[in-house]
Amino acid sequence: MNILNIKNMIWNFFKKIATLNFSIFILLLISIFSMLGSFIEQNQTIFYYQTYYPVINNKFLFLNWKLIMNLGLDHLYQTWWFNLIVIIFAFSLIICTFSTQLPSLRNARRWKFIHSKYPVKLNNSLIFSSNLLNHSSVNMIYSLMYCNFYVFHKKKYIYAYKGILGRIAPIFVHFSMIIILLGTVCSLFYGFVTQEMIPNGEVFHLKNIVNAGSYSSLPKNLVGHVDNFFINYNIDNSIKQFFSEISFFDQKGEFFINKVISVNSPLNFKGITFYQTDWEINALRFKLGHNVCIQKKLVKIDIGNKIFWICSLPISFNKNIIFIIVNLKNQILIYDMNGSFINNIDINKKFYINKIPIKVIDIMTSTGLQIKIDPGVFVVYLGFFILMSSSLISYISYSQIWVNITSSIFNLTGSTNRAILFFEEDIGQISQIYSEYTFIKSQKLILKQNSCDILRK
Description:
single chain, five-stranded antiparallel β-sheet, seven-stranded antiparallel β-sheet, transmembrane helix, membrane, alpha+beta
């Protein structure tokens, strides 16, 4: 008896989990926490949260950095409680699919004849009865098949249906959501994201990890090289697009691939995607005299919503000259310490200060790359494709018709799960075709037979 009670409790628990209301509630929780994760910046330092979410004078009411850190809202999608909610939602969908959707599909494919002599009232049903003579099962079957119904006939009973895809589609809606969740979990545990700021012409490895799954691994036998970085400008000197030409080798120096990437044109190589995300102007490289090379770091400043890069080069004990870069296309501007314009120069153009030849050899730039492995992205896209397709297909009406025909009794009952107006049109068309072939033609046949009898007499 105790075992039976335990089984009943477990069964009741599963039935509650599989209900539509429970699934909607869990989905609502996931949506709320996902929006919260979009609102709160993820994977930042504790100093960042202390700055923007202070305990005192907090403009977000109860949301402060202590609460964020304690609940794990700084990495919400990796927290155990969020993953538990996702697992419960997937569990609910699986139980609902196998306990409700699949049995209902099997029931929908079953031949269901109604043996009652009287019309049966169903939800969204239409009933038609007639006591006229000369009813025909063959004509009714033809009328149903003409309207694209699948027809089953047994003695004086007829069962027909159409739109079975409308009953199958909700099952695929459930499966697609499960596939999306599996893809998300796969990305969570096996994906990683790194960000690198790489000087032009330098070799780089994947090491600056921003986010990594528990079971992810960095590709070890991969070396990258930034061959070139350049920027295209519009007529008004605003940036149109920036590009990085990168090459990849193995640790033995064997060449793999070379490609120019941009913001909207990433490189996908061996399941790794390389995105162009940022850039920097770092320094100027000078050649003083004939054999002395130095580098001076550039400082980025914003003046009147315009960006400039500035560095100074000492030319005497208490005297400097200032180099200003507006962009990578125009000439470099030279000013003295009083702000007086001295000259504008091109790269590798020699000029003289105190009779010393000086040349700007290079403007040293860096390209910002985001490197990402996301093995679950294909699974998620597949899930969304199935979800959208099955959601559209689910709007197909599933209609059923039961007919009971004898020589003097005709009962037709029809039911549909949606689009009752279209179903009424189907019933009207079926009735029209059936009447045409059963009554009108039979009357013509009777008239023809009577005329033949009159002629014989």
